[in-house]
Amino acid sequence: MNGKDKYRDFDGNGFDITQLQEWDQKHFMHPWAEMSSNKSKFDVITEGKGIYLYDSSGKKYIDGPGGMWCVNVGYGRKEIASAVSNQLVQLPYASPWTTTTEPSAILAKRISEKTPGDLNNVFFSTCGSTAVDTAIRFVHFYNNVQGKKNKKKIIAREKGYHGSTYLSASVSGKERDKRDLDTDTNLVKFIPDVNPYRRPSNMSSESWCIEKINDLEICIQSVGPENVAAFIAEPVLASGGVIIPPKGYHKKAFEICRKYGVLYISDEVVTGFGRLGQWFASDEVFGITPDIITCAKGLTSGYMPMGATIISDRLINKLADFSEEPTLFSNGYTYSGHPAAAAAANKNMDIIEDEKILEHVREVSPHFQNRLKMLGEKYDIIGDARGIGLLGCLEGDLGKNTSESDALSVDYKFSELVDAATEKRGLFVRPIINMCVFSPPLIITKTEIDIMFDILDDALSEVQNSL
Ligand code: PLP
Predict the structure, then answer these.
(1) Contact call for residues 230 and 139 (beta carbons, < 8 A)
(2) Domains along the chain?
């Protein structure tokens, strides 16, 4: 058998793991691909069940990050697999330009019932990045049609992450990610980090909130409201390090946006579909009805790729009223509303409803947050232990008493060490620079939360003692 025949009839069983790792290293360019002649060798994951992943040696791990903040209903859901399989057999594809399908029409209706206020218009895309791209393209289109050709700037926040297309990366505020990549710097104005942990030690949370809102207002005023199209914000900055803005921040930011005629895009790619115990967090947790919501990840729990941009009736109606000729929003993807992805999303929503997963998240989150806080209090190497819902972050404090940028270079070690110590004990965490973040499948039980935090406790004790 030559090399090619070996994988032509791949049936998911029996490949030599070393061979797979070699092909992977040689040919698979992963996200955030390392440009090095000595690339990392990745573990091969072969199976998932509930909150657990299994590697090729059969070792079991709790999936602390829930895939990439996405596997909300957990692994091994045969009912989603069947829904996708049945749909593929019946109809794998129909052009969304000229036709619709049962699962995608049903899904659009169902999503619009879960969103706050008049957010009733669902534009399907393929992931979170394309959902954000669509949101930005829409606000530009919205202003162009009204003849406001200069109203284009987007205000975004340092440490925000919104995706990896040119537009969504341009509004993302993680400096390290942009070091060697181009983005549209003309399009965006960034306002400073909102992380309450980084406020001066003598400043109250209320004063910090006022300062952060001032940052937004001053930015709008300096660019000129006539030039600002939208403000984009994650309700909780996820990959920036689970940053929860100070109390009342979103409401005040929303009021400022309204005051100056700036649209509010709430990026719920992580918070949507149950992470904070609600379908969407914008209104139910933070009290605002934005103009546009973006979502992805938990929409299908990662079983199929899909994203959505949900736009308010107010905006859509305004455009309809504005021009006599129908105006075309010439933006779309071959796979917008893909029937198999929509079937996965519908089944995912059934599971969330039938198993009362939102209620479950609200019930177990206080225990999760409590265990997280206790680690923060117990270990000196932790600077901040923060979270909300089933989101958590441990931020290292190896660089105590240094500036944030100096601390970051020392603290790289923190996430590396914690990652190694937890993996050894059967827990995956997500190391990000000086932090480890968690967003386990939402079905995690109280007992499993305890197992997860017991492993972390043990691992942190090893790391602290080693330093
Ligand atoms: N928006 C937020 C808040 C995210 O966290 C992410 C990804 O992590 C994205 C957008 C981009 O989503 P995707 O990776 O599906 O393109």
Answers:
(1) yes
(2) 5-73+356-466 (3.90.1150.10), 80-354 (3.40.640.10)
